[in-house]
TrEMBL record:
CDD domains: STKc_PknB_like (cd14014)
Example GO molecular function: ATP binding
Protein name: non-specific serine/threonine protein kinase
Domain of life where this protein originates: Archaea
Location of the Protein kinase domain: 227-492
Transmembrane segments: 15-33, 68-86, 92-112, 133-154, 160-179, 184-203
Native source organism of the sequence: Thermoproteus uzoniensis (strain 768-20)
InterPro entries assigned: Kinase-like_dom_sf, NEK_Ser/Thr_kinase, Prot_kinase_dom, Protein_kinase_ATP_BS, Ser/Thr_kinase_AS
Presence of the UniProt keyword Protein transport in the record: no
Amino acid sequence: MLLSAIAIAYQARKIFARFFTLFTILIILIFIQTYLINNIIEDEFYILIVSILLVRAIIGRYVMAMRVALYTVIASLMFFNSNLFLIEQYNIINIVLDSIIIFLTILLFEIYEYSYYRINKTKDIAIPAILSLAFQSPYMFVLPILQGFIFAIFNLPIQIYGPLASFVYLLNYFILIYIFKINYIFLFVFINIFLFLVAYFVFSKRIAYRSLSPPVGWLNSWLGGKYYVEDVVGVGGFSYVLKVSAGRQKFAAKVLRYVDDRGAPLASSWDVIKIFGQEMNRYLEVLSDYVVKAYEVSIPSTEYRSLSDYMRNPPYMILEYMEGGSLREYLIEKRALSLDEFFRIFIQILKGLNDIHKNNLVHLDIKPENIMFKDREKAVVKIGDLGIAKLAVGKAVAASYLSPAYAAPETLYSQTASKASDIYSLGCVMYESLTGINPQSFVVNGYEIPPPDRYRPEIPSWLSGLIMSMLSPRPEARPTAEQILRIFENYISGAGVPQ
């Protein structure tokens, strides 16, 4: 029990990050108490208490059920200890230690709030879990159940760690039997392995969410029963972006929020869910090497009755995972792009936008945050987040969800948009990428936008003029994505410099 408790404490150091000092004190006191009273049943009580605390920290649900379980274990421990006291196996030191242990246990349980924490699955979960199994006492049946549960929650591959856990069990019992000459029934080895495996398979891929706090409530759980949620990538006004995995493949999951920042219904409205499904399914039709690939759209069959229903099965879309981050992050780092980088990046963006427009779609949210790099070297660039893209009907389409810092004048004032609106937004991004200044800052203050070559004389005059034409307040005066792309291709190929 002694060494096993230390391994469990190490495993819990990140899970109990905010209250780790209290948890460490609790484990030390249990360590001392176990040393004073060497009793198998006492060990089981302590491991049960630690197990309930760990489950409480990992799962932010079923609090009342876990509270009942905890107080039942504490009452049983107190009853057992009173019997030990009556037969004079307990002294005042044990009573004081148990009182402090019980107090800290209740305090940790009641003050703990579900929080975000990063876990290295091998270092923080697998290694200390196997160590705790290796040092457990023969009759500690609670521990393999706890570790099987933790292995399942944090998606540790059972084909690797299952045999390893079985091996450390056998090694532990071999040492106890043949070196320390401890006698016990060898059947317990197989009972412990069986309990470990049963706990693993009972909980594996069955935890849809761990708390009612989106998006962190999905961490280390299973989206749609298929995608393991590894991290929260970002939070937008209308969606959460999660990093998920299926086997060895990594994806991004875009999840429609239950409500927006102002409390207005999103996924909590059936009408919004239907629109989300329609728009996302149109996204699947866009086949381009320069647009973030979409693989799957999942929409509930009925409207949600509660937040827990939403957490269990939210509306989501599975997208290509863009490991290199966004243009926004890159601009924060670089402030402004060199001309070579500018042409390399934006010719790919233009190809993507041209493909979107060929599908008779307008993006409506072109901004640095939605321009993504596929790789860390930032060689491959793609347009992402067609979440509010609308099917163009005729020449214009209603635009209800916009980023004002990059939105065209007609979308801001008349609430209509066309493909030319995307050209204006792209012009804003180009201007900002070259100068570090968002041209909308001039527009909203009533000033005329100065040409970008005024800030950087090395910008070719033809490029400065092209960007200014993209920023024209009149949609019909802006060039198309195809026209701009042709100009860029001619310049890069050396076929001719526009005049």
